[in-house]
Amino acid sequence: MAAEYATFGLAPAMRAGGVLAGGDFQVHRDFVDFIVDGRSLLFRLSDLDAVSPLASDVPPAIFTAQVRSLLLETDAPLPGGRYVIYGCPDCADLACGAVTAVIRRDGDDFVWRDFAWQTGEHADLAFNGYHGIGPFRFSGAEYRAALAALLDGGGGAHTRRRVLLIGARVALLARLAAALRTIGIGADIAHDATGVPADELRAYGAVAFGRAIGEAERAAVRRAFTRAGVDVAHVDGLAPIVPLLVAQIEHALDRGPAERHRLTRLTAAGGAAEIEVTSPCRVRLTAYRLDRLYRTHTHEVFDDVLEPGGHRIALDPRAVKGESFVVARAPGSVLVAAVRHGEPG
What is the CA angle 88-118-304, rounded to 5? Predict the structure, then answer.
């Protein structure tokens, strides 16, 4: 099959971390995604939780080696001229499975073909090939320019993976900070941003406020970041529930355009959640509620693969009575919504 020309680009992306039900956690990863014909190549691979080899947390020498490998300046790491395109976000071990492809030079062009899911030294195209994807032919000049920009320090993955936590409940903030650090996000606790040097403020990608922090105090923090010239995301904590706050912060750190998200809308009212999905993917919906004694109750309400489009998911009334919230997760995306009561679905 002859490869048709496709456009090639790169864009920052992230695999959202989180504190999951049962005490499990999912590590946050920032990486550079491959954009083919204006669309994430990862999104064409339905229900795949993976990252590219161009991750922000790998040592610079390894990152450079990965870029030069994709430029075919070194030998292929796998037999048959195959390269890892997306791998396990937790360990990058081929045994966990990876999307691989043959990359060849054809004249001045670069061709990606024979995409497959691979768990060993050799790929089995008959059983594990992605037969509906590729081959793609990329203009050599466009391809080399996009990857070379990474070597020049441009177009890389996100780097501001720190969050400033401001609130009145020190014990809660400490638990939240510990949870964020567990999934790979730095977190610091402060009463306000007064006197913090501009260079330190520039290290933060988000600032999160507890519910007890008044508007005047919030405005003062925002002004401090503005004076430092930092475009920082602001998170208004919905409730003293650590997994919920982690999800809010992960959503705030994802500053990419809407078309690069698998989840684009989440609302909850009238006994159901409404969710919008841009590509086939596994979606997990978790409900959190506070009872009258401010104890947290967690319910897993949905876990299945959804097709692109809008979906309505019924919510168990017992899971969302009173003050309650829902968190939707898909590979690379997370959304949070407060449950509105007394409204029609």
Answer: 60
Q: What is the pLDDT of residues 45-54, one digit of tens each?
A: 877 889 999 9
Q: Are 238 and 210 in contact (CB under 8 A)?
A: no
Q: Which two tokens stand for residue 316?
A: 């168990």
CA distances from 299 to 26, 287, 290, 333, 343 (A): 18, 5, 12, 20, 22
DSSP assigned state of 87? B
**DSSP-derived secondary structure for 159-199:** ---EEEEE-S-HHHHHHHHHHHHHTT-EEEEES--TT--HH
pLDDT at residue 144, rounded to an integer: 96
89 preceded by cis ω (within 30°)? no
Reported as type and span, the H/E element at residue 234 is strand 233-236
Which is it for the CA torsion 160, 43, 50, 151, positive or negative? negative
pLDDT in tens, 161-180: 789 999 988 999 999 999 99
Signed CA dihedral, 132, 137, 141, 144: sign only: positive
Cβ pair 327, 336 in contact under 8 A:
yes
Sign of CA dihedral 23, 29, 33, 38: positive
Nearest CA to 252 out of 309, 305, 185 is that of: 185
Which letter, b or e, does each residue of 239-267 get, where b requires 16 or more Cβ atoms within 10 Å of its Cβ?
bbbbbbbbbbbbbbbbebeeebbbbeebb
Model pTM score: 0.86
Q: Are strands 25-26 and 4-6 parallel, antiparallel or unpaired?
A: unpaired
Instruction: Assess whether pLDDT exceeds 90 at residue 302.
Output: yes
Q: Contact at 8 Å (CB) between 212 and 168? A: yes
Q: Residue 345 pLDDT more than 50?
A: no
| Percent of the chain with pLDDT strictly greater than 90 | 62
Kindly state the tokens that stand for 279. 């590509």
